[in-house]
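TL;DR need structure tokens for one chain.
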Amino acid sequence: MCPNKKTHKDILGMAGEQAAADHLKSLGYKIVHRNWRSHPYEIDIVAIDNDELVIVEVKTRATDEFGDPQDFVSRKKQSQLVKATQLYAQKNDILMEIRFDVVAVIINNSGTKLEHIQNAFIPLLGM
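>> reply
TL;DR here they are.
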């Protein structure tokens, strides 16, 4: 497969991230970064809500047949997000409260369904 060719999964994921960003903006969040990367880590959306830095994991699916999208934010994924956030905060001299949100998006022929879970998880020590 050509490295620049987008798969259905890629297109669905991008649409979900756009829906999540639009939703956050409508709530007054300031989007600071989208798809921030520092190998091997990635943060889908970095935003500011009032005085908090919000790290947003976006999970997009075409159906909830196998479970809600937010159910796929595993402990391993949470640990990776915490490590990515530590790196992000260090590289950007961030000295503010940090919150982890999940935006679950289902996009299919019936439309778009979005659920925003604030404080979706609290990092455990040692993550």
